[in-house]
Design brief:
By secondary structure, this protein is of the alpha+beta class. The protein has one domain. The chain contains two helices and six strands; from the N terminus they run ααββββββ. It has helices at 18-68, 80-89; strands at 94-102, 109-116, 126-127, 139-146, 179-189, 211-218. The protein is elongated, with a radius of gyration of 32 Å.
C-alpha cells in the first residue's frame, strides 16, 4: 500500500493583526493629543496679537483725535490746547470714547471717537448717548488725567487714593509749560442695556485698565 503525502499550501492572511491595529491607534492618538496641545497656545497667541493690534489702533485714534481733530473747537476761540486742558482740569479728568458703530440700519461700520457729552470741548467733538446703542463690538472708555510728569506745584505731589490720579492745581493762565502731559487709561466695556456712559472717576480706582500710556498736547 502506497502512502501518499498531501501537502497543503497555506498562505498568510492579508490584513493586520490585533496588535498592529492597537499600536496604530495608539500612535494616532498620541499624535492627535500632541496637536491639540499645540493648538491651545497657538489660538492664544492669535488672540493676543488681535488684542494688541486693536489696542494699537485705539491708541493711534486717540492721539490723532487729540492732536489734529478740527472738531475740538469752542465758541470763545480757545485753542485746542486750552480746551483739552480745561476739560481735564474739570474734576481732574476727562472722558473719551472710541468704538465702531453701525451706520444706520446697514451692516456697514465706521469708527466713532469723541468726548463724553458735557465736556467743555465743543459739541462736534462729543459722542451722544444714542450712538452707543449702535456699537459694533467693545466700547473703549478713555480716561484722561494729569500725568505724573507735570511739574509741581501745577499738580498735586501725591496721587489721590480715592481715584488713583493726580490733581491739577494750576489754572490755564497759570500753566506756563509749553505742553500738557496726560495719563491715558483705556478700559474695554461691553455695549448693551447695562452700559452707562456717565461714571465717576472713583469707580475705576483699582480696576486694571486694558492699556495705560502717556501723551501730550502742545500749545
Amino acid at each position: 500500500m502506497n502512502n501518499f503525502s498531501v501537502s497543503k499550501n497555506r498562505s498568510d492572511p492579508t490584513g493586520f493583526s490585533l496588535i498592529e491595529v492597537v499600536l496604530a491607534i495608539g500612535i494616532f492618538l498620541i499624535t492627535v493629543l500632541a496637536l491639540v496641545g499645540l493648538l491651545g497656545p497657538t489660538l492664544q497667541s492669535v488672540d493676543e496679537v488681535e488684542k494688541t493690534d486693536e489696542v494699537a489702533s485705539v491708541v493711534n485714534t486717540i492721539n490723532a483725535f487729540l492732536q489734529s481733530s478740527p472738531e475740538i473747537s469752542g465758541a470763545t476761540g480757545n485753542s485746542k490746547f486750552d480746551l483739552i486742558y480745561n476739560a481735564v482740569a474739570g474734576g481732574n479728568h476727562a472722558t473719551m470714547f472710541v468704538f465702531r458703530e453701525f451706520i444706520g440700519n446697514t451692516i456697514n461700520v465706521r469708527l466713532a471717537v469723541g468726548f463724553q457729552v458735557g465736556e467743555p470741548i465743543g459739541t462736534g467733538a462729543t459722542i451722544s448717548g444714542a450712538r452707543f446703542t449702535d456699537a459694533a463690538g467693545s466700547i473703549f472708555r478713555v480716561i484722561l488725567t494729569p500725568s505724573s510728569v507735570i511739574p509741581t506745584p501745577a499738580r498735586g505731589a501725591d496721587r489721590d487714593q480715592s481715584t488713583g490720579t493726580y490733581s491739577l492745581n494750576a489754572a490755564l493762565t497759570d500753566y506756563l509749560e509749553g505742553f500738557f502731559a496726560m495719563e491715558v487709561r483705556i478700559f474695554a466695556e461691553d455695549p448693551g442695556p447695562t452700559f452707562t456712559a456717565s461714571k465717576s472717576l472713583a469707580e475705576f480706582n483699582g480696576v486694571e485698565p486694558l492699556f495705560t500710556y502717556n501723551t501730550a498736547v502742545v500749545r
